Amino acid sequence: MIGAKALSALVVLSFAASGASAETLRIAAASDLKFAMDEIVADFRQDHPDDAIDVIYGSSGNFHTQIQQGAPYDMYFAADIEYPRALVKAGFAASNVRPYATGRIVLWSAQLDASELTLADLPGLDVVKIAIANPAHAPYGKRAEEAMRATQVWDQIQRKLVFGENIAQTAQFVQSGNAQIGVIALSLALSPELAATGSYYLVPEALHEPLEQGFIITKRAASKALAAEFAEYMSSANVRTIMRRYGFVLPGEEQRTSAIESDVVGQ
Amino acid sequence: MLSDNDLIAIRLTVELALTTTVVLLVLGTPLAWWLARSRVWWKRPIAAIVALPIVLPPTVIGFYLLVALGPNGPIGKLTETLGVGLLPFTFSGLVVASVFYSMPFVVQPLQSGFEAIGDSPLEAAATLGAGPVDRFFSVGLPLARPALIAAAILGFAHTIGEFGVVLMIGGSIPGETRVVSVQIYDHVQAFEYAEAHWLAAGLLVFSFAVLLALYALNPSTLKKT
User: Fold this and answer.
1) How many pairs of residues across A and B have Cβ atoms under 8 Å apart?
2) Whole-model pTM?
């Protein structure tokens, strides 16, 4: 199945991997960043063609634990700023916590017209499964639970809930139709893959604690120039444009709730 | 079809499975020989420990390995003192985990193979003046050759199929711990279904071929199971 071209690519890669001149940056990122961060890294790499940047997406809570266990990540982008704050306190960071965005949650479905629904409609829906991220360790799951409790639907829908290991898996549960509806990150709902296949309702932010997100450079990357450069790049105009496009609210900027909600009507 | 990252994952997985198989054959062969020949009562608890990964959820193995190999665990402290550093989230860590996880798949076929030899060929060799080590190398091993091949194939294939333990102690680092099974998981979560299909179908064909080879090499396994 692997062609000659692929094999030669393999050989080239194995040489590239042993090259010493280029730096490698390993970023652990909350999975709500999946599509935004891919774009950011692609842009960043245009000025750093020789450096390798690996982004590992997962649940913020799991990364928090893994970094304490010695996981070799150079930077950590969490969907809940409390996780990097705790790491700074515990001495695992080489930088202060830098806030980079505030996330939003949405009700998303590939089968129902979610733009016509609110959380209060959930108990009355004829659905078998409702997906949220695991509130135990995924910030988007925690906020989903808070919003569901605030709308007083939590108890009624609890037996229908399925829990994704992180917000991307949660979105995958709904996108594949195995859960008919779910609460996911706005940044994922706005990704090309999901925007084309479903509709969403933006959950009012008054219903939950803010999804304030922050990143740190970890202790092991203290002297890594590339990490400092990438941290600097995160506040560039280019990155801000990308982040805004994925529905993130940036530090020091107003919420654009009304603008985003008027977009929903068009879906 | 296959991206650079997929190829890196494939290469890494093959490296992991090969390393694990070699380590397991070196460690597992004497262990299986002892389990097959010894008559002491406490070989039963040892055999049970070897077989544990067959029934234990990978999360149990992953959790204890993470704790034991971590900075506060006994093995973690040892490896740090020895200057090796910490094993979780490294290739070496995956080898350690895989050796434990795939152990029964190598030891058990070998043990059955050694047991099937019976006492008489070894007693005959002893009469001819062969010592215990000589008997193992010139009688035991050659007679158990089909079992050796089966053990190697099963150990290799089972390591390729590992997922839960790797997810817990690997950290999905490209070229280091992101094996094919984890790469498929990441593809699915990124909605990259086409990419997931290529790897998943590849593993399906591979696994089928492995089992087919196993039954072709050793038809008796069909009768036993």
Assistant:
1) 68
2) 0.79
